[in-house]
Amino acid sequence: MRFYNRTDELEALQQRWGSAKAEYVVIYGRRRVGKTELILRFAADRRCIYFEASAGTERDHLDDLSRALTQTSGRELLAAQPLSSWQAFFAAVGEDLQSGPLLVALDEFQFVARETPAIGSLINRFWREHRDNPNLFLILSGSDVSFFEREIVGYGATTYGRRTGSLHLQPFPFTELKHFLPKWKPADLIRAYAVFGGVPYYLEALDPAATLGKNIERHVLAPDGLLRQEPRFLFGQHSDLREDGVYFSILRAIAAGRTRRNEIAARVGRSDGATGQLLERLMGMGLVRRVHPVTVVNPDRTRMVRFAIDDPFLRFWFIFVHPYESRLHRRADARDHLDGLVLPGLDAFV
Question: What's the pLDDT tens digit per position in 188-223?
Fold first, then answer.
């Protein structure tokens, strides 16, 4: 994968590497925003234990950690006799610190926390034991934004006050699209940004030699398209969201023009108060934002509030894809949908 931008973030990590003290950095941001690529780029040519957690049990995580440790330290015994606990992992890392600078990156950390509730306390203990060791560079990273802001960087978090730095990665601004689509005209870049936003993974998938319409058809509308099910994968990263259906219903209501809270509540069949709580979670994920008239003096107290989908691709998907999925079963259906509905309405959408 090509590596664009993120020069400030990469430079910040590199400066911390040379700080002559222990570092504990949190990197978080929505799915596909480039966290893993940033970490791997930073880890290149450095001694590193990199572990990307996935949905699974604690036993699965420890088995995968054992393989990561074997690769870094050469402990072949771990391949035959994997770690039995997280305490054993941190003890092994402590031993490896004696051999020189070591980067320890625990990626998609929210999956670990789901299976090992005591992990925050274990990390605190590990940090207390080694915070004076300049060989330690610890990174916690993940895609569950609301979890990280509540449990990792928030005031009430178990690990609050321990970290030495944090990076909340955001999608690229519009100006970065020229790196992905260098020969496209400005008007088409604007259209592309309105559809795909600034998420690097989405932009990397685009074929600069094809038209925007063909890219939409291939990646979003086709049944096997790379981004066809992306919103469902996005919601699957968040530990808070146990009812994907109601969140989808809220986003669909907003996309359809029901932007006041009472209108959204009526559409999804929830009370006004319950809908407010659901909207707060979506705002915490960075997917929805409040909007209000520019004449309002105190935005926090006004009732003249509407809600908008903050992510361009989600906005496009909930307007042009989700309501029509029952008719998008074949590639021919995708072409017909593109020509009959998407392209005629695209500029109005933009």
Answer: 999 999 999 999 999 999 999 999 999 999 999 999
Q: Rounded to two decimals, what is the model's pTM?
A: 0.84
User: What domain range includes position 75?
Assistant: 7-168
CB count, 10 Å around CB of 184?
A: 18
Cβ-based neighbour number of residue 281 at 10 Å: 16
Which residues have C-beta within 8 Å of that of residue 316, sequence separation ≥ 6?
A: 194, 195, 196, 220, 349
Q: Characterize the bridge pairing of strands 306-309 and 288-291.
A: antiparallel
Q: What is the CATH number of the domain that holds 27?
A: 3.40.50.300
* H or E element at residue 272: helix 272-284
- 17, 46 Cβ separation under 8 angstroms: yes
Domain boundary among 168, 198, 224: 168
Contacts from 70-73 at CB under 8 Å and sequence distance 24+? Answer: 72/47, 72/48, 72/96, 72/102
